[in-house]
Amino acid sequence: MKQFYLFLATLILFSACKKKIEKTQEVPVKPTPDFVVAFGSCNMSQEPNPFWDDILAESPDVWIWGGDIVYADTDDVEKLRAIYAMQDTVAEYAKLRAEVPIIGTWDDHDFGLNDGGSDFSIKEESQQVFLDFMGIPEDSERRNREGVYASHEYEVPAGKVKVIVLDTRYFRSELVKDEGSKKRYKPTTDSTATVLGEAQWQWLENELNQSDADFNLIMSSIQVLSGEHGFETWGNFPLEVDKLENLIAQSGAKGVIILSGDRHISEFSKTNIDGLSYPLVDFTSSGLTHSYFSFSGEPNQHRIGEVVSEKSYGVITFDFEKKEADMKMKGDNGVVLQELKQTY
């Protein structure tokens, strides 16, 4: 009996020690990504946006507006200014703005005209309102040149990310209506038609040729690779698509990724380009406050995965050592809706 009690005491002591050891074991710490980009488009300031707290929780190094920051659709400058001002009154967005750098571009609804382009009557005035909203200083060179395009570099100890923000509105040629099908527009046959305009094309070429960044993000408000749906897309200007792809390949720029919005859906598109050592991805993230819930399908020969037709935002985390970009579409509370990892 004495031996039994001795055995029982030893067992109890062993169990207590084991529990103590288990309690003191460290929980593995999730590695911190080298750099985080968050972006999105299609945002109505008067509608609830459920994502600002989630985006802030991502601890992004930068937030990129992909266009349609607000829905104004007006040639009244003061009305346009007032609608932008509404976005600045959104409390959760203000928290993000206070902690995270905000950059980006416009699309048609914040430009001021649905599907609008170079012939919009107040594009000069609209540009200044946009720059005011983005907090661009009055003495910035961006105040004195046409278009809202810009580039931004972010360097951390592990590497560098460059964000090239395009303007697909100010210079864009007229769209060709498709009278022969149910599609809205069709590709133009005009060899002089343009998306970016001569000055912006030259600027983009310089930005890519001179870039020493590990990753180069090109923010286009409209999709580049998905060009078969008949809505607004670079595909309506096929020669411009070829020009962009050739420019990317010939520049030697590392880790080029296209970001886009506009469509009220989110999807990944990917293609291989001659002379480019990695696939070109177009990550579409749209929209923040409203989306194409009735989406029932459309062609996209470059699509990877499925279309996400619910509201979402985009996040990309970069690992410089692995040369990897982890791209995620996310919903409320940071739920991952779809993911694509790409090595460069």
CATH class: Alpha Beta
Q: Major beta sheet, specifics?
A: 7 strands, mixed
Query: Any idea what the shape is?
Result: globular
Oligomeric state of the chains? single chain
Question: Whole-number radius of gyration?
Answer: 24 Å
Q: What is the CATH topology classification name?
A: Purple Acid Phosphatase, chain A, domain 2
- Fraction of residues in H or I helices: 25-40%
How many individual domains? 1
Please list the strands of the largest sheet in the order they lie side by side: 4-5-8-9-11-10-12
β-strand number: 15
Low-pLDDT runs of 5+ residues are: 1-24
Pfam families: PhoD (PF09423)
Domain PhoD-like phosphatase metallophosphatase: 51-293
Organism: Flagellimonas lutimaris
InterPro entries: Metallo-depent_PP-like, PhoD-like_MPP, PhoD-like_sf
Molecular structure report:
It is a single chain. This protein is of the alpha/beta class and 344 residues long. The protein has a single domain (37-343), classed as Purple Acid Phosphatase, chain A, domain 2, CATH 3.60.21.70. It is 26% helix and 24% strand. The chain has eight helices and 15 strands. The strands form three sheets. The chain has a seven-stranded mixed β-sheet with strand order 4-5-8-9-11-10-12, with helices on one face. A six-stranded mixed β-sheet has the order 3-2-1-13-14-15, with no helix packed on it. Helix 3 packs parallel to helix 6 (123-133). The longest helix is centred in the first third of the chain and has 23 residues, at 2-24. It is globular.
